[in-house]
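PROTEIN DESIGN WORKSHEET
SECTION A - STRUCTURE
LENGTH: 346
TOKENS:
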């Protein structure tokens, strides 16, 4: 009891998970997605793909190769239960999950991070590499859910990657320019921890930013809707988060103990509610203040809503001051206090 599966048993589980997913994807339109046709070039040797790239598109097993590559990527990186659990939690079919996963992976250019992590074999402890991979997995999982919940019927991989990746690149380039509060402290601590373990500085910074970047798609959309730079939207988003302790709330939600599937679903629902409230509050601050400067916008809005803001911050502060007993119920109360600021009429 409690010993987990042996390597041969894990190999069997992975194999059956791949067979099940492959069977679902081959019957869908996923192999026809133009973006995934790049998997053909990755599948064949570089010289062959370069010389016969046009002919590869006519390969009789084109669909099977694309599905196999997509299936292997999802199961190998995310685990054998990822697709099934995502389907259970969101009601999406396997093709939708595969598309959302591919968008998340490509938008954050996670393949590059995986290659860099694997290049550290024998240079850093394997446990450090595993932990780094888990940081990327948590990022992809959150963004996959976000895409399904927000854009279920608009998951063209090329279109979504083209829309999201430029802004995400900008956010990933210099996180210390916009991170604040708990998120900044966590980034600096994780980055220092990885550097001390022997991870190159650039990779350590990218991995350390994975947690904070889970909200990156919201920031990119916030910038587009307000015609702001991504940097300005990020400053507003994280500034308002630090002001109301939303960064602390997120950390506490992530650390909640779960017993069984439905506790995990409840935690996921609470996390999603927090992201919705955070985005909604940042949007309202920017819309009502009409200020382009994030700091001035927040100050102006807080002054106009002084009483309501003080109440919400007070509730979060009271719960935060508890030494014990910070559970699902108390975090829900704190979140509801902030949600009222988003819903209250001007």
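SECTION B - SEQUENCE
RESIDUE ASSIGNMENT:
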């Amino acid at each position: 009891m409690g010993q987990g599966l042996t390597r041969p048993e894990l190999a069997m589980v992975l194999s059956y998970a791949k067979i099940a997913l492959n069977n679902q994807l081959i019957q869908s339109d996923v192999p026809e997605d133009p973006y995934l046709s790049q998997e053909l070039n990755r599948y064949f040797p570089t010289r062959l793909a370069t010389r016969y790239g046009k002919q590869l598109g006519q390969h009789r097993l084109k669909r099977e190769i694309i599905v196999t590559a997509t299936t292997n990527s999802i199961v190998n990186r995310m685990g054998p239960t990822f697709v099934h659990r995502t389907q259970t939690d969101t009601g999406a079919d396997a093709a939708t999950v595969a598309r959302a996963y591919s968008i998340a992976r490509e938008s954050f250019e996670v393949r590059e991070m995986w290659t860099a992590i694997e290049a550290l074999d024998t240079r850093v402890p394997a446990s450090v590499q595993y932990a780094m991979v888990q940081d990327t997995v948590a990022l992809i999982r959150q963004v996959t859910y976000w895409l399904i919940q927000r854009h279920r019927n608009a998951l063209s991989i090329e279109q979504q990657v083209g829309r999201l990746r430029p802004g995400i690149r900008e956010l990933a380039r210099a996180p210390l320019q916009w991170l604040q509060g708990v998120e900044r402290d966590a980034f600096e601590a994780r980055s220092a921890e990885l550097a001390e373990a022997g991870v190159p500085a650039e990779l350590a910074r990218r991995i350390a930013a994975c947690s904070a970047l889970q909200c990156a798609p919201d920031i990119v959309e916030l910038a587009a809707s307000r015609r702001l730079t991504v940097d300005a939207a990020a400053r507003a988003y994280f500034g308002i988060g630090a002001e109301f302790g939303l960064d602390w709330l997120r950390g506490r939600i992530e650390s909640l103990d779960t017993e069984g599937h439905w506790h995990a679903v409840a935690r996921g629902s609470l996390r999603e509610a927090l992201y919705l409230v955070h985005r909604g509050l940042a949007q309202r601050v920017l819309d009502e203040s009409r200020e382009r400067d994030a700091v001035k916008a927040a100050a102006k809005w807080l002054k106009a809503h002084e009483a309501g803001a003080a109440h919400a911050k007070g509730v979060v502060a009271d719960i935060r001051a508890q030494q014990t007993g910070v559970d699902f119920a108390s975090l829900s109360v704190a979140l509801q206090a902030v949600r009222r600021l988003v819903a209250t009429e001007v």
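SECTION C - NOTES
The mean pLDDT is 90.
The chain has 19 helices and no strands.
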